[in-house]
Amino acid sequence: MRFAASRTATGEIAAPGSGSFIRSRVVGVGIGATQIIIAHNHPAGDPEPSADDLAMTKRLATVGKTVGIEVIDHIIVAGEEFVSFKERGLV
Fold first, then answer.
1. CATH number for the domain including 81?
2. Cα–Cα distance for residue pair 47/34, rounded to 1 Å
3. Which of 8, 31, 65, 91 could lock 85 by a disulfide, CB 3.0 to 4.6 Å apart?
């Protein structure tokens, strides 16, 4: 599975309660998207979502609803494996 994204803006978002940062590439907001898919990698090789992944997805989905953008999936890639939040009923 391959992923491609256009780099329209970059920034860092603090994960709730963790003190960790997520480097984001914001794609879609500036072009009028009504739906987005969040994707990132876990370089350590385990695609299982962390508590921070779950919290950030929930937060982004809540904010998205406020501005009219639906989060339709969050995909975590680790090597040849991936986890889809949509497939697990998490979005």
1. 3.40.140.10
2. 27
3. 91
Q: Does residue 16 carry a pLDDT above 60?
A: no
Helix runs in the chain, H state only: 51-67
The phi and psi torsions of 64 (rounded to 5 degrees) equal -60, -45
Is residue 1 domain-resident? no
Structure confidence at residue 42 as a pLDDT band (50, 70, 90): very high
Rounded distance, CA 54 to CA 56, Å? 6
Beta-ladder partners of 22? 13
Model-level pTM greater than 0.85? no
Q: How many whole angstroms separate alpha carbon 13 and alpha carbon 40?
A: 14
The domain of 58 spans 32-91
Q: Per-residue pLDDT for 51 more than 50? A: yes
Do the Cβ atoms of 17 and 9 come closer than 8 Å? no
Residue 22: inside a domain: no
